[in-house]
Amino acid sequence: MKRIAITAELKERELLFLLILKIKLESQGHIVKFIETRLLCGLKILKFKPDIIIVNGLRSKSNLYKQILIPKMLFDTKVISIYSEQVGKNNGLVETYNYKEILKSVDAHIAWGPYFAEGLSNLGVAQNLIHTSGSLSLDIPKYLNEDSKVREVLSSRYNLDEKKEWIVIADNIIRRGQQAAKYDVRRSEFNKMVISIAENIENVEIIFRSHPEMMSDDIRSLKMVFSKYPKVKIINGEHIQIWISQVNSMIVWRSTSAIEAWTAGKNVFAFQTSDNEYEYWHEKFIQNYSETNKLIKVIEMSLKGFYELPSEYQNSREEYFLNWFFKNDQKAIERLIEVINNISKVNTSKVFKQDFKYCKVISYYLIELIVYIKKIILGDYSKYSINNKNIINLKNFLNI
Question: How far, CA to CA in Å, does 128 sit from each of 55, 124, 349?
Answer without folding.
Answer: 19, 12, 13
